[in-house]
Amino acid sequence: MDLTVEWIIVRHGRTEWNVERRYLGHSDIALLPGEDAVLSQLALELHGLEFSAVYSSDLRRCTETLQRVRPDLMDKVRLDRRLREMDFGAWEGKIYDMLKDIPSYREWIDHPEKNAPPGGESWDHFSSRVSQFCADAMSATLYSAGQSNDTGNPASSKRPRVLIMTHGGVVRLLRTLLLPGVSFRDYQAETGSLLRIPVQVSSTRSGNEKHETS
Predict the structure, then answer these.
(1) Which residues are identified as catalytic?
(2) Which of 21, 50, 134, 158 is most buried, judging by how many CB atoms fall within 10 Å of its CB?
């Protein structure tokens, strides 16, 4: 089966640590008070869109963002820890000026694929869990589309659309995984922004999935 799926990937709204430019990984920080007004544009962009699947990081800043922009999707969302931001370990909650003179921090900034924050997550682990989520989400979409075809559901004629509510680093990594020829460093996902990527998903004879962007 060949299928074109639109992935809409959203970065959560602002937290106090985002405003203060602190490293924010697995700490469970709530959105800023009054963030509804800032998220109004995102709510408008998502208004009325139908989704075959909705995924979110389990951290509050993501679930609260979804609650504020599409509360009707809260009973459909699947929370997935693999969509969490990278774990920054000992550098969590720190700002650049606190870390800039630490040699291990400079090495991580220059070569994140070879270094990891003390007590934090390696690039290989971060990339692996996001890649596995990607593969599983595509597999679930293919399975759901196949079920709809088998039952003659007229909705199966529509292009499936998947919503993913996550964090800045994960948005950048998903973009790198899904779009050929782009790098992690050449894109910044702003808080409350969305990225649309049409993905061609197909099942091979062995039953595995492959994808390419369209």
Answers:
(1) 12, 85
(2) 134
